[in-house]
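Entry 14. Ran structure prediction on the chain below.
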Amino acid sequence: MKKITRLAIAFFPLLIFSLLGFPILAGAQIFGNREQSVGSPTGEVEQHVWDPLERSNRKVFDFNDRLYSDVVEPITTVYRKLPLPVRNVVGNGFQNLEAPSRFVNFALQGKPHRASNEITRFVINSTLGVGGMFDVAQKAFGLQDHDADFGQTLGIWCVEPGPYLVVPALGPSNTRDLVGLAADSFMDPLYWVPGPSWMMYPVDFVKYTSKASDHIDQYETMKKASLDPYVAMRNAYMQHREDKIGNRPQQPEAIHASAEDDARRQAADRKAADEKALAQAREEELRKELKPRKNASPRELARALLAAAQNESPRMPFETVLHQYPQLAGAVAARCALAQDANFRPDWGSDNKQRLRIATEIICQDLARGDRFARGGNDSRLDRIREMACDQQRKLDDLERERESM
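Output, structure tokens:
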């Protein structure tokens, strides 16, 4: 009985938004071509978006921004201190739970190949992947995952997006995507778990923290680079959604061209998957050749860490260095903690790259003297390194200004 009541309550807004979003039911005059050209007086790129609620949307946007800065960002920052393998396990688990929703949406979109791909991935990862905690389907069988949601499905069915909306806590949306969000929530296996609904709040908290941690940097970068973050967010969201829908009904010649494009993309995807598998095999061979050195000298440890920092990449060589020199785990963790600091973000400019390089050299100098870094509890030590790196950067800036003045 409780499930039926919850379903009825949830379907009521779904019906209302469906009436608003479907031009056939609500009248073509509502959404036909009634898009207003909304430009930013502050110089943002103009884009045609129907935003009749801009005044209230901006207020909600400001509220969400404060919520993000005061609550979400600190929580995700703490969450990102967890080891990457732990975060990957959490993310994979929630991604696997969304597979039934993606399967239904791909089927409704008329994409049987991707629908079968999703159900195959779900079966493999739920069994061999220990309940979805490990993405065995991609790593062992090359089955890539793809995003799909009911808002995208409605867009492919030619449902208009409706007015742009900023939803408290959820962020940018429109009436069509709110319908999709409601429909997707019914296809979430966690929704049908028996018991009080409040028991799912901790699970939802972890789920959205995991997802937010993947985009925490993008939002801050967008804000710093935009004259009007509201317009930048609106344009980016609407463009992203249109790109995801992408394949509306086409003329026969366009359909033929689209099929050729799909074939080329699939061939490119297969080639990329083969190259990735080959690279992983080479990495594994390299790992087997590298024998751990437990008695390495302090100077050797310092050289290894410095070489890794000068040639770092998402996977290598830090993994290889830690495999060969397990004693460097604490120093690598300290260096990674500095890289997350607001004053040491390499993607925020050359000065930050320079500060991080200086801090890395200080860590290596400590190692060469025989100092050791603990796996945790290096806060005061990191403060010292951070201060020294910033001081040295200021001295370099002063010297540069003196040379320019001469």
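The first strand starts at residue 37 and ends at 38. Will compare against last week's run tomorrow.
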